[in-house]
Amino acid sequence: MLKKSSIRRITIATIALVIVGLICIFPSKKEEFPQSINYVEADLSPIYLIDSNDYVARTQMIIKENDDLLKVKEIIEALTIGSSKKDYIPNGFKQIIPENTKLIEATIDGGLLKLNFSKEFLNVKENDECKMIESIIYSLTENENIKNIMIYVEGEKLTKLPNSKKKLPELLNRDFGINKVYDLDTFSNTYMTTIYYLSKFKDSYYYVPVSLINNDDSNKIEIVIESLKSSPIYQENLMSYLASSVELLDYEVKESVATLNFNDYVLSDLNSKDILEEVKYTIFLSLKDSMNVKEVNFNVNDVLIENFKL
To answer: In sequence order, what are the residues at sequence separation of 6 or more whose Cβ sits closer than 8 angstroms to the Cβ of residue 300?
Structure first.
């Protein structure tokens, strides 16, 4: 017979095992803390940097600020060589404002942006000085609250380019042009139309605006479409996906909305009734810059295919 002490130990062990089993089956309720994950979407903004072919080109990068003035400062930082933003510049692009340039002050009043730079701003190379002005104008006037720009250096208004001494307009805006191409018979009665083409760095596509300055007084819609259809293009390393067989049947512009009516050849696929994104973007961006168009209706044989806007 077992001794009483042995029986007692077996009993205690058995009870302990039962208790452990019950705990495993019915675990004690633990305090739970709510968990949440906040996703912050990157704010990609258009910015005009220098591409590998030395064009002032439209690309996108993360701009964190939303306030207009803070956004201006962040964009200027992104355009400045060797700045804290240098690691965020997309592959295939480079900055243009001279290294160590500081933005001393920026103010916005009634659509007019005044920028006051440090003296390093004048260290720009002669081949880059016009591109630098174009890059600043086009990057900052993507903001609809900025229509015109004045540039100062150490408080003195910049009235001409630092090296070539070419005179600058009183107000800098997109009428200044970008990647300008001249096709002139005479210097009187000149017209400017800005046309966006595609370019490529490795596997990435982006848009390059070219301001065509000539004596052609045709409607700018016709100039844009004919230029995008043309081959070869005025500049090397640029392309357009608008087929030469495309015909613009008719068009109208009403209250900043352009309605373009094409034949079937504008479609990428007759069955799906799609128009290539690259075609829509090049046409829209060109009309936006050249005619201040805010929307484009793409029609095919009088049937609306898409209302396009950014």
So the answer is: 261, 262, 263, 264, 266, 267, 273
What does pTM read for this prediction? 0.84
- Say whether the peptide bond before residue 90 is cis (omega within 30 degrees of 0): no
d(CA 81, CA 18): 73
| Neighbour tally for 20: CB within 10 Å | 10
Type of residue numbered 193: T
CB-based burial label for 81 (10 Å; 0-12, 13-18, 19+): middle
pLDDT of residue 216: 83
Return the domain boundaries, the chain: 44-176, 181-308
| Contact status, residue 48 vs residue 93, Cβ threshold 8 Å | no
Structure confidence at residue 231 as a pLDDT band (50, 70, 90): confident
Nearest to 91 by CA among 242, 221, 200, 193: 200
pLDDT in tens, 153-182: 999 999 999 999 999 999 999 999 999 999
| Residue 151 and residue 158 in contact, taking contact as beta carbons nearer than 8 Å | yes
Q: Which residues, 6 or more positions from 201, have their beta carbon under 8 angstroms from its beta carbon?
A: 51, 52, 91, 92, 93
